[in-house]
Fold this sequence. Notes:
By secondary structure, the protein is α/β, with parallel strands linked by helices. It contains 20 helices and 16 strands.
Amino acid sequence: MTREELDLEARKTLESLPEELSVKDRMAIDVCPMPSQDPAARCRNMDEVALGYGEDQAVLEAKRCLNCKNHPCVDLCPVGIDIPRFVGLVAQRKFAEALDVIQESSLLPSICGRVCPQENQCQKNCTVGRAHKSVDKAVAIGRIERFVADWARENGVSTVPAVAPDTGKKVAVVGSGPASIAAAADLRRAGHDVWMFEALHKTGGVLVYGIPEFRLPKKLVETEIDKLRQMGVHIETNYLVGRTRTIHELMEEDGFDSIFIATGAGLPKFMNIPGENYVGVFSANEYLTRSNLMKAYDGKDAQTPLYHARRVAVFGGGNVAMDAARTALRLGAENVTVIYRRTRGEMPARREEVEHAHEEGVDFLMLSQPVAITADETGRVNGVTIRKCELGEPDESGRRKPVEIEGSDYTLPFDCVIVAIGNASNPLIKMTTPEIEVNSRGNFIVDEATGETSIKGVFAGGDIVLGAATVILAMGQGRRAAAAMNRYLESR
């Protein structure tokens, strides 16, 4: 069904409901499906896959909320959005007021509504879903949040958070991803002079270079970043902290009273198997950055050459692997295969992303471990040697550990390989600021309650602390650190 048809169905259901809804009435309402592009069409374009709720769908879905007294959904929201209050306002068609409630805690509703794993956070605790014994039956909080943000943008409703009087304090935010955006917003609200430094030529961090256009249109990121500018945050691009200026220079020479570091986990990991240096082997970081930030898919305005491939292998089973596989299809690959060493049930990727990839024609090769990449006489990839696996005992993550089956190797033909097995922290700031303590993985060690590093007045959050995590978890760390920084600055 089209978006319009689904919205019409929702309107008919709304008209049939009693004026005063009982708990039983609300529990009987089915989850509103998300309208989306047809898989056969979307796998060859960069337009957004999910089309978003219409107004009546959003209202109907909001009416499923029971407004529980203990608000369990809020407990698992990393940024503490008052979910029942904004959902209740949507049910009353008070969309502008709902936006105000969300923006008390988050400047990124259009982004979080699209890419956050609500099924593992707010929706996981939803009373409706638990009553139905399925998180799939929970109130679709993320879809409602996305609707509110999209409605506001389409109707010219823009709310810029109020800023307190000037405190005379100067604060630096290093990076411009989700943790930095959340921290900068809260620090500026408190009245500090906030400067954001971004190493690349565009702001947004992983939101811009890591998440594909078909999941998160970049114009939405630009809109949210612009709110920071309207609040008075200074944003400097092409500014590499650790090279342009060090942390010590920012504090001792440039007059910054406190610094928040959120430079992410952008250093790709490889498998260290034979053949990873052949032409046609990419880290998922590079592959996605070329597409997302440099528009490799745009033949007319691309800022980087496109590597043409017919048969693409993707190593890994997380969200980044799904993004890379689906991007490869859109860049013209005839066949894309995700190679993963466990089963589909153990894949860390969001189920929705796996289902979308499957619908679009991505193949999945499970219980399979790449052990070598082969190439032709010119050094270009022409195949992957794969070893079969079986599941053994659970590892430290609780998932059953893959065990390689000796003597089971075979080779499949591929002309491109994308390695999507995770990222490590960029070591640049640690190299130029040795006093900052890091763990064995290179992640900053911080006070869990405040986000403060081993250097007084220097705080950190997001993937540089967590390793590769989610947008909303990074935002939660940004908000927590900002609150601690406010206390620190007041004490001075």
